[in-house]
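User: Quick sanity check before I run a bigger batch. Here is a single chain. Can you write out its predicted 3D structure?
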Amino acid sequence: MKLLNNSVFHFLTGVLCCLMAAYVYISANDAKKVMDERPVVSSMTVTPEVPTSILFCGETIDLRRYNIREGFDRELSSFTYFHSTTMLYFKRANRYFPIIEPILKANGIPDDFKYLAVIESQLDPRVTSPARAVGMWQFLEGTGRQYGLTITPTVDERCHVEKSTVAACKYLKEAYDKYGNWIDVACAYNGGMARITGELEKQKADQALDLWLVEETSRYPYRIMAIKQLFENPYKYGFIFRARDLYKLIECEEITVRSDIQDLAAFAKKYNMTYADLKRFNPWLRDRKLQTAGKTYKIKVPKEKEMYYNTPNAVVHNPAWVVR
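Assistant: Done. Predicted structure follows.
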């Protein structure tokens, strides 16, 4: 009987071993099949969610039509995954939106047009395009003069944040008086009023979103709407900021100047700043000297204590931008 029991035990043990071996073999094959079909990746790219509609300048824009949805999706995807540049937009906006927003409001321009400055210049008041458009609002020389900006060999107010924003407001108001539609105004800012008006007539269209235009102008309104979507929902699209990550607005004193300055480097030294800092805070100074031609200018001089991040920045222009 004992011998029989040993035989049964060994038999059952053998069967169990065979079953386990088979299970391991099948599991290994299943795992290999899964790995072949869905390999492990180091990171994942997820297409950003496109809403069915958004608000722009108080108007609901329906994004369900194929060309509008796809145009918006293209720009939203671009901004979402162009990480380094999009992060810079937020950081600079913390410095410049407090300057731009009150000027837009005072001139009756919808607040959403601050995003036009974002896509035009990346909020860099010194930038120049290949077409020679200059400044945060990217004015051509003739257009800048038309809307009240001084441009001389030593002064270029297209690079003056406050004055160029006022000039942009004048253009936007004139365009709105013409079209009565802020999306058309945005398209005209890029393509020009003459071109948009002409194409609306030639294509017998009611609005600029229905036009067949050159690619840059066609993409333009979607870029504004898409960057607005990111600014209003940064966390949703993968952008996480802390207050200390954002650039602070540096407080300055203003020196009124009514006569020529022959050496701006010497002027800067007189006020305990470098020539480089003078140019950074006054990017409208385009030469090593200033010729006033009878005009009065105000030069910004940054306060010494404001020029250092001795403590983390705590000023956040929009609380929605940061995580708590």
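The chain has two domains: 53-245, 252-307.

User: Great, the batch can go ahead then.
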